[in-house]
Amino acid sequence: MILTAGTVVRIFLIVILTVVIQVSGMQGITLLGGTIDLIPLVVGAVALWGGSIAGATVGFSCGLLLDLTVGQDVGASSLVLTAVGYFVGRYGEVNEPANALLPVPVGAATTAAYLIGTTVVSLMLSFDASLSILAFRDMFLTVLLNTIVALPVFALIRRIIRPVLTRDPLDRRRKRAAPIESGPIGLRGLGI
Fold first, then answer.
1. What is the signed CA dihedral for 16, 22, 24, 27, rounded to 10 degrees?
2. Taking the chain (192 residues) in consecutive chunks of 10 residues, what is each chunk's mean pLDDT?
3. The pLDDT value given to residue 32
4. What are phi and psi of 34, to 5 degrees?
5. Within a 13 Å sphere around the CA of 130, how many CA atoms are in the beta-carbon half?
6. CATH architecture of the domain with residue range 10-164
7. Of 92, 106, 134, nearest in space to 40 by CA
8. Phi-psi region of 108 (alpha: psi -120 to 50; beta: other; left: phi over 0)
9. Dist CA 150 CA 28 (whole Å)
């Protein structure tokens, strides 16, 4: 990602709008008994297209803003989302995200890691926390719904941040290096 004022404004607006839409609207909508959680999807999308530093930054910002908005333990969501954003971004840097259906498993993995991570951190920080089988049902439904919604969310985030990316995610053609034009096979690279 190219760090300019336009990049900072785009990322800032993505973080603010995602947390506001999630807290004010998406938490109240239940589908099949579960809710759609946009925050891990947006963190995963920015991390996949922008890299590990952008993913960790957006993860920390979304998590901190979410914790402050909802009023839960400050730092719990930001800790988990920073790690999730970093590792998804690292995956995108090491492996070329050239497959059109890659957002589906990345969205599912990002959501599952976020839900499991926040559950573990909440259980470690709380003295009177308990866990029931209904929580696992809700986690499964959230992962399922986020998997369904992953393609349009990733496409929207890619469209928003595409002008500031260093590599184009839609450019799937690998450029071949020009063949070396020097001497016989055993003497290549010697300039003979």
1. -170
2. 83 93 84 87 92 92 92 86 94 79 90 92 78 84 92 91 74 56 58 56
3. 82
4. -125, 175
5. 4
6. Orthogonal Bundle (1.10)
7. 106
8. alpha
9. 19
- Dig out the tokens for 72 from the structure: 């839960």
Q: pLDDT value at position 44? A: 93
Place of tokens 């719990």: 76
pTM of the model: 0.82
What residues contact residue 110 under an 8 Å CB cut-off, 6+ apart? 40, 41, 43, 44, 84, 88, 146
| Three-class DSSP labels, the chain | CCCCHHHHHHHHHHHHHHHHHHHHCHHHCCECCECCCHHHHHHHHHHHHHCHHHHHHHHHHHHHHHHHHHCCCCCHHHHHHHHHHHHHHHHHHHCCCCCCCCHHHHHHHHHHHHHHHHHHHHHHHCCCCCCCHHHHHHHHHHHHHHHHHHHHHHHHHHHHHHHHCCCCCCCCCCCCCCCCCCCCHHHCCCCC
CB 83 within 8 A of CB 117: yes
67 contact partners, CB below 8 Å, separation of at least 6: 73, 74, 75, 76, 77, 78
Distance CA 81, CA 44 (A): 9
Q: What is the pLDDT of residue 85?
A: 94
pLDDT at 184: 58
Question: Residue 52, CB half-sphere, CA atoms under 13 Å: how many?
Answer: 8
